[in-house]
Amino acid sequence: MVNLVNHGTGRVRVEFTIPSRSLIGYRNEFLTDTRGTGIMNSYLQGYEEFRGDFPTRLTGSMVSDRIGTALSYSLYNLEPRGTLFTVPNDPVYEGMIVGEHNRDNDLDVNPTKGKKLSNMRASGKDESMILTPVTPMTLEKAIDFIKDDELVEVTPKA
Question: What pTM did the predictor assign?
Answer without folding.
Answer: 0.65
